[in-house]
Amino acid sequence: MTRIGPAPGLQRAGARLPIDEYTSRLWHRRWFINAYASASNSVGYQDSFLGQAWQLLTPLLNIAVYYLVFGLLLQTNRGVPNFIAFLTVGVFVFAFCTSSLTSGARAITSNLGLVRALQFPRAVLPLSTTLVALLQLLYSLVVMIPILLVSGEPITWHWLELIPAIALQSMFCLGLGFVAARLGAKIPDTAQVLPFVARMWMYASGVMYSVAVFTQNSPKWVGTALNVNPGTVYLKLARSALLTGNPATPTDWLLGFAWGVGLLATSYLYFWRGEEEYGNV
């Protein structure tokens, strides 16, 4: 039987667009992405009594638990001048990474009705989930900044460095979202496994301890591996901006740029190549 292709001038439904046209259509939907992310962020807490207050209460409770377990019981606060501020920045900033990763895994599977009914660049969905995570980080500044000030941290011009630090981290987190979205669409169990991966990653990123102090008596490769870890890198950049005595090196900024730009570029291509698969999930 002869296979009949699309007529001249027509395009097969659901066909993957060239990357430049795909990106152009994605850009034209930027207002929808923003509105969709804002709506998703509001709806996510509508069934709870305290509503969106949980966006701030959850990390605050985590800070209290980590301070008790790691700071007081395990004494990981050794060598850290202002441990409560150090821990606060670590918990809030790293939550951006974990939220982007775990919510990205459900970006396609949680919106199958939309994916199957409408034609649009599917990258809209991981973009939206990452934007929700970014909004949660920005909202957390309402709580994080007062904690820093009460704990004794002064306001300095270095706080402006938080802007490029978050920008680089946002690129990296969007890359995570693209990878997790395609894996989650192909492997349903991805969404169940990633929270454990995220927890292991958190323990290896110096959220509750100083990597420099922790690796003082360790083999050199241990310190290198932990310092190259993107989780550690973005925490260093944020802490350098907000905390005194935690300077980031030029190498840290180069690593932040490399992780952000590198992962975003490769993961975007990776997600785009699977565009035709998402409607068949």
How many domains? The number is 1
Mean pLDDT across every amino acid position: 87
Question: What is the helix tally?
Answer: 12
Biggest beta sheet summary: none
Structural class by helix and strand composition: mainly alpha
The strand count comes to: 0
Main traits of this protein?
mainly alpha, 12 helices
Question: Can you offer a commentary on this structure?
Answer:
The structure is a single chain. This protein has 281 residues and is mainly alpha-helical. The chain has one domain. The protein is built from twelve helices and no strands. The longest helix has 27 residues. The radius of gyration is 21 Å and the shape is globular.
Topology summary:
Layout: H1 19-28, H2 30-43, H3 54-73, H4 83-104, H5 112-117, H6 124-150, H7 162-186, H8 190-203, H9 211-214, H10 220-228, H11 230-242, H12 250-273
Describe this structure in a few short sentences.
This protein has 281 residues and is an all-alpha fold. Helix content is 67%, strand content 0%.
